[in-house]
Design brief:
- This protein is of the alpha/beta class.
- The protein is built from nine helices and ten strands.
- Strands 6-7-8-3-9-10 form a six-stranded mixed sheet, with helices on both faces.
- Helix 3 (94-104) runs parallel beside helix 5.
- The radius of gyration is 18 Å and the shape is globular.
């Protein structure tokens, strides 16, 4: 479904992606792990067309992804993104946030969009919060609204950019629970995360990225339990057994 071939990206003189080649199959859950500043979030933003890339190619079901391509709006409706900091409109209710895309991007009938929006809020355990504004919600609740908003576009895949890193530890489980259900239902997902337990239990594959390159990739349990590359071993030792 998603193909990256020798993707390079620089910000000024700093080369952030140094030739990323990877693929994601339909229905697959791929977790991307690595230290801060390694290029993980930049990969997601390039897949979604939020960032342009300098060379190489990204395609989604054969459609080339480029920020200025005529198909970029179509691509963004097919590949939703959930951000670290929720990115909800504070002046709109939870339900209004969820229906924004279907109403204004996909031009769906209002009654249909609102009916599905309420169903999606119920699906993420927030049926009773439909008329509440984001500032009155906890971080975990806001992130679940953001997931409902992503689902409202009826996407073929969802990109998650460290969806739990801004949350208090006790709120993380609710968000991961929703993501586990999506994985069980066959949603194609690319997840940048520091939640190694989630990656081990839910992901089909894991990519370990450092310094803008894929250092190691493989089946999730194999890579996380028995990493082969010394850099992966060192990273996981630090993450799983911090001093």
């Amino acid at each position: 479904m998603i193909e990256l071939s020798d993707v390079h990206k620089s910000f000024g003189n700093v080369e952030v992606l140094k030739g990323i080649t990877a693929s994601v199959q339909k229905g697959e859950v791929v977790c991307v792990i690595g230290p801060s500043g390694s290029g993980k979030s930049t990969i997601l933003r390039c897949i979604n067309g939020l960032e342009s890339y300098d060379r190489g190619e990204i395609s989604i079901e054969g459609l080339k992804v480029h920020r200025d391509a005529p198909t970029i709006v179509e691509i963004r409706t097919q590949v939703s993104m959930v951000f670290q900091r929720f990115n909800l409109f504070p002046h709109r209710t939870a339900l209004e946030n969820v229906v924004e895309g279907p109403l204004f991007v996909k031009q769906e009938p209002r009654a249909e969009a609102y009916e599905r929006g309420r169903a999606l809020l119920a699906r993420v355990g927030l049926a009773e919060k439909a008329d509440v504004h984001p500032p009155q919600l906890s971080g975990g609740q806001q992130q679940r609204v953001a997931i409902a908003r992503a689902l409202a576009m009826q996407p073929k895949a969802i990109l998650f950019d460290e969806p739990t890193s801004a949350l208090d530890p006790e709120l993380v489980g609710d968000v991961l629970g929703v993501m586990r259900k999506l994985a069980d239902e066959g949603m194609t997902m690319v997840v940048v995360t520091h939640e190694m337990g989630f990656a081990r239990d839910v992901a089909d594959r894991v990519l370990f990225i450092d310094g803008g390159v894929i250092v190691e990739q493989g089946p999730a349990k194999a890579l996380l339990n028995q990493p082969q590359h010394p850099r992966t071993q060192d990273f996981l030792r630090r993450v799983l057994h911090p001093l």
